[in-house]
Amino acid sequence: MNAELTQILDGIGPRLRALRRDRGLTLEALAQDTGISLSTLSRLESGIRRPTLDLLIPLARAHRVALDQLVAAPATGDPRVHLRPHRKDRGSVLVPLTQYPGRVQVFKQVLAPREPKLVTHAGYEWLYVLAGELRLILGGSDVTLRPGEVAEFDTGEPHWFGPAGDSAVEILHLFGPHGDQAVVRTGPEA
Fold this sequence. Notes:
Structural class: alpha+beta
Low-confidence stretches: none
Number of helices: 5
Radius of gyration: 19 Å
Strand order of the largest sheet: 1-2-3-9-4-7
Number of strands: 9
Order of helices and strands: HHHHHEEEEEEEEE
Strand content: 25-35%
Helix content: 25-40%
Distance between the termini: 67 Å
């Protein structure tokens, strides 16, 4: 094996361990989720066992990341935009999808469990649930949204959102300037 390939393979174990710990998962929970034995997961993370696709694919699914994020392979000259995730405290991940100052910002987020803390600020938000369950506290309301459901609200209203239970939730999060609201152009004729 050449040095570059060895370096790539050696980096996978620590990356897997960091992803698991960032999400607050135990090896036991990950084993149950993926069907991969506890000892195999431990050997992968410690670098004793070399990763194979049949192990990496279920791990990528369980962590909700692309396979190339686990491998961290070198760039291939692909002309498409490559998004850079930002790790937040306690296992949350934020991926900015747009960069339009003063306009609606779009993010993909994986939110790890945390304590609710209501906030207010200028702006308008839209939340779309991709996977898991999202708890939204908005003023005096407390609702749980499931995949395919959406919420929109003025952020001047005290609010908080995060996982409804002990598992992470994955959402699309749009944030716009105060006064922006969705314009619905389809639907039943009036």
